[in-house]
Amino acid sequence: MPVYSYKCKECNEEFDLLIGVGKGNKELKCPKCGSQKLERLLSSFGVRMGGLSTGSSSCPTCSTGTCSLPPNEN
User: pTM to 2 decimals?
Assistant: First the structure.
């Protein structure tokens, strides 16, 4: 099941929801205020390609090589 990020248009709360297959948007509501006036946000995702490194960092999740994590802590 996919996870979608939403922002409530009433209270500006941002939150993630796990959406089941076939679940209509009528059931979605803000966990803070209960409003159904939601905006679905664009979110990023990570892709790891078979051990290929795209940066100079030893962190496999960093593509920029500017990871602030010390090596071996990921």
Answer: 0.52
